[in-house]
Write a structure and sequence with these properties.
Elements (H helix, E strand, L loop, with lengths): L4 H22 L6 E4 L4 E4 H53 L4 H6 L13 H18 L4 H6 L7 E4 L10 E4 L8
Antiparallel strand pairs: 1-2, 3-4
Helix pairs in contact: 1-2
Length: 181
């Protein structure tokens, strides 16, 4: 299992804390010089402890900041739906109040409602023809025309099973019954 960067940093901070405890116990003389890393590092015990303490302090500060940020984000997420609903309602009020005044709407960062462009005579004629063709294709009519239509409707139902048995298909006609034999 691989560790992510946060686990590594937290582990390093915990190890640094253990190093501090061990350094204080095993090297009681803070001014003692330590040379390690093949001579790459030469430092005093107090300086080593200070570096390790900086690592611990940085990790603690980051963890605290992350916890505070999480609390803030959770609070924002909890409040956001109500605040957005309020803002949408306020926007509607502002648009209704200042609908005719583009300058006032601009003060709120809103744009006025765009007026629809009027249709030309050709567009109106084409739309009327299209409506008539649609009504004819769908068989729709006005309420007055529907009231004029009278009559009885007889329904015929034909039922065919998916896998018919040998010579067994059923046909039902309105007003008849079928008996099983």
């Amino acid at each position: 299992m691989t560790k992510n960067a946060t686990d590594t940093k937290t582990t390093a901070a915990a190890l640094a804390g253990s190093f501090i405890t061990g350094m204080r116990k095993r090297f009681p003389n803070g001014s003692q010089t330590l040379t390690f890393g093949g001579g790459a590092f030469a430092t005093t015990v107090d300086a080593a402890v200070a570096n390790l303490q900086a690592l611990v302090n940085n990790r603690t500060a980051v963890t605290t900041a992350q916890a505070a940020a999480k609390v803030s984000v959770d609070a924002e997420n909890a409040a956001m739906p109500n605040l957005l609903a309020f803002m949408r309602a306020l926007e509607g009020f502002i648009k209704l109040t200042f609908a005719a005044n583009a300058t006032a709407l601009a003060d709120f960062g809103l744009e006025p409602r765009k007026e629809p462009t009027p249709l030309t005579a050709e567009q109106k004629a084409a739309a009327a023809a299209k409506r008539e063709a649609t009504r004819k294709a769908r068989g729709t009519s006005s309420a007055k025309a529907k009231k004029a239509i009278k009559g009885n409707v007889t329904a015929t139902l034909v039922v065919t099973p998916e896998a018919p048995a040998a010579g067994a298909s059923a046909v039902l006609v309105a007003g008849t019954t079928q008996s099983k034999s």
